[in-house]
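Chapter review: from sequence to fold.
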Amino acid sequence: MTTPARFLCADAARLRGDPIAGTAPYGSVWILIEYRAGWPSDGFDGLDLEPEVKALVRSAAQAVRARVLLIRRHGRRRPDDRPRWAVLRYEKDGAHSQEWGTWDDDRDLAGIVTALDAPGERGHPPVFLVCAHGLHDTCCAVRGRPVARALSEGWPQLVWECSHVGGDRFAANVVAAPDGVYYGNLDAPLAFTVVEEHLTNRIRADHLRGYTDLVPPHQAALAAVLRHAGPSGRHDYVIEEAVRDGDRWRIRVAGRLGGLSTFEVEIRARRAPAHQLTCRGPSPGSAVYYDVMSLRVG
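The token string follows.
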């Protein structure tokens, strides 16, 4: 009797050719908590913290629609320094902010709430979060950890493994925060190139899931522009106008710098047939994808 092959959602998604553009979740604030013990499958919600502190952080995060992620350095090494927490915030003017603190006691995490009301410090380089949450999804570990190892060798101070960021089938996933840029379908060499170029403000469409300050059809339109016009900076294009008609959008993407064109992009939403979308998914799910129907210089 033949043993059935283990289902891996990222392998299945690649075989199906699942589109990647337009799949980044919306958000502009990240709360990071360094946690060096094993991560529960549901991340922060599953931590054994003081209930009052946990409720305080959760409520403050929900108020600003912040995503709470657990982080650790690759290899689960246990350095002598104290675990850290951070509040990272994306600003539309490009001046991102970060506020970092440390914690030994659960009550120290209340500093996160104060930091959410503070302006934060500007001028720091982004951090790169590699989803490696194996207890949540097998592909995040199988594909994420080799990427985290490679990136940690190149940028040890900027790279963290993190808990679930969404889109397990696009593993390995890398998030640049607080830039709010999601990359997916990466392996170690590709991830190294993506991060290297991101740090020089060159973003390519090939592995771009989207910008988290944009809704999915806008993400797909901007990715189409980058695919057509070539790599560009995080803030080089802006969504100038978007008109929806049923399952279609007409989106005007304008270059903000001299020499960059303006584009008219037509996007159509379609719901794919139901598939098992995650390794541990209890039942099939149906994703919505955004196809580029036309693109022309406006």
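Two observations follow directly from the output. The helical segments are 9-16, 51-63, 111-116, 138-154, 188-198, 216-229. Residues 9-213 form a domain with the Glutaredoxin fold (CATH 3.40.30.10).
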